[in-house]
Amino acid sequence: MDAKPKAAGKSSIDLIDQDLAFDNIMVGSRATYLDLGSGAGNYTLALARRLGAGSLVYALDLWEDGIVALAEAAREEGLGNVKPMVADLSQPLDLASGSVDAAFMATVLHDLPEAARSGLMGEVARVLVPGGVFALIEFKKFAHGPGPSSPDKRIGPEDADRLTAPHGFVRDAVVDLGEFTYLARFLRK
């Protein structure tokens, strides 16, 4: 993989209804969270600010400069509940099985090679507690607006169902987050 992944440094956080998104990601103020493909951490920081002191947010990304920037921003804000880690999402995650209460991925999955997606979903299932939440924020399947230029390269809720179901996930909600984005929330059996 490239040292700077595709779309590194971009964020969709300004395109979403943040309160609605985090209401569907959060499972408790003292829980452990995982931001997959965090980049420089716009979503990570926004979540960490909403959580209690007993929480933890792992932020994983292959882009080392983004992880360094996230660590610095968290330190400057006094957010001791953020743990940034350089990680290749196409490889096994360096987290213990059943160590995460909720995981999320915000407009990143469409950029991962298709061959790596099933393995990542298996890893998400492994690190989540039974009943844990996986929230996927993606671009709607439009031929316009931000995100992939072709609707065929976008991941809709049904595409996400096909990817997550073999790993023991059941979709329990689809939430419209704005003009261009949605959130699909899955529960791990």
Tell me what the structure shows.
The protein is 28% helix and 27% strand. The protein is of the alpha/beta class. It has a single domain (13-188), classed as Rossmann fold, CATH 3.40.50.150. Strand 1 (32-36), helix 2 and strand 2 (56-61) form a beta-alpha-beta unit. The radius of gyration is 15 Å and the shape is globular.
Summarize the structure.
This protein is an alpha/beta fold and 189 residues long. Helix content is 28%, strand content 27%.
Write a concise keyword list for the protein shown above:
Rossmann fold, single chain, alpha/beta, 27% strand, 189 residues, globular, seven-stranded mixed beta sheet
Largest sheet data: 7 strands, mixed
**Helix proportion:** 25-40%
Q: Which structural class best describes the helix and strand composition?
A: alpha/beta
Spell out the helices and strands N to C. Answer: HEHEHEEHEHEE
Could you give the topology of this structure?
Blueprint: H1 18-25, E1 32-36, H2 42-50, E2 56-61, H3 64-77, E3 82-86, E4 100-106, H4 114-127, E5 128-139, H5 157-164, E6 169-176, E7 181-188
Parallel strand pairs: 1-2, 1-4, 2-3, 4-5
Antiparallel strand pairs: 5-7, 6-7
